[in-house]
Amino acid sequence: MTRKCHVRFGGGTVEKRLNGGSPPYLPYHHRLTDNPQAPGLHDPHTHIVLPGTVYDEEHGQRVPLFFSRNRKVNHIEMLNDVTERTMVAQMEHYVGPDWEQRYDELAEAREQERQIVADEPHGMMHDDKGENWNVWCGTRRTDEQQTTVGFYRHYPAPTEDDPDALRLEFRPLVAGMPYEQADFFAQALAQEMNGEMDKLQELAGLIGGMSADQREALIEEMGGYECYTRKLSPDFEL
After folding, report:
1. Which end of the chain is less crowded, N or C, counting CB atoms within 10 A of the terminal residue's CB?
2. Which pLDDT score is estimated for 51?
3. Domain limit, last residue, from 77, 97, 117
C-alpha cells in the first residue's frame, strides 16, 4: 500500500499543486521499526523531498521555494490535505472501509492490556543506573491475529515541564502467538518468574524456542488453558 501511495504522489498530485514544475524527490524504502515496544516490524514508507526553488513567472526566473502559511497560498495545508486524502483512499482500498474501526479496536485492546499494572507487580527490574523498577508480565496485541508476551515497566520520559515524568511501556519477549496462547503464557510466566527478571527471561526463551505445536503440547501438559498452577520447568523435554 505504501508503494501505491508513493506512485500516486510521484505521478504528479503534489507536483501540480505545490512546486510549479520541479518534480519532488520521493525516496521509497523498507526498514524494520526500531520501536522498542514492537521491534522488527515491517515499516515501508516514503519521504517527500521538495525542490528548493520554483519558477516565478513574474520575475522570469527561479526563486527560493518557501513553505509558509501566508494569506495567498498555504503550502503546508495543501500538502497535509493531499497526504490525508490519499492515505484515506488507499487505506479503504487495500485494508477495507472499516480500517478506522479496526484500528480503534486494536488501540482499545492494547489499552486494556496495559491495565495489568493495576495488579500487584510480578517482579523487580534493575536498570543500568542501579535503580529498581516494578515489572508486570503481560501481553500486547501486534495485530488482529498475533499477540506478544513480554513485560510492562515505567521508563523515564522527562519533559521541560516535568523532568521526573515516567511513561509506561511494553518490552517484548516472545512474539507471534495467537491471543489465547499468549494470554496463557503471560499468566503462567507471571506466577513462575517468582519475582525474578532472570527467571522470566529464561522461561520466555524456552517458550520462544518452541514451535506452535510444541507450545500447545506444553499447555496441555500444564493442565490446559484454564490452569496456571503447574510448574513451567526449563527441563521440559521437547
Report:
1. C
2. 66
3. 97
3-state secondary structure of 169: strand
Helix orientation angle between 179-192 and 197-208, rounded to the nearest 10 degrees? 150
| 133, 58: one domain | no
Segments forming the whole domain that contains residue 152 = 107-221
Of 4-8, 78-82, 171-175, the least confident: 4-8
The larger pLDDT score, comparing residue 84 to residue 181, is at 181
Asked whether the beta carbons of 68 and 76 are under 8 A apart, the reply is yes
**pTM for the predicted model, two decimal places:** 0.72
CA angle at residue 27 from 26 to 31, to 5 degrees?
Answer: 140
pLDDT digits (tens, 9 = 90+) for 20-47: 555 555 666 666 777 788 776 766 777 7
The answer to whether residues 150 and 170 touch, using CB atoms and an 8 Å cutoff, is: yes
Task: Tell me the sheet residues that pair with 77.
Answer: none
Number of helices (H), then strands (E), in the chain:
7, 9
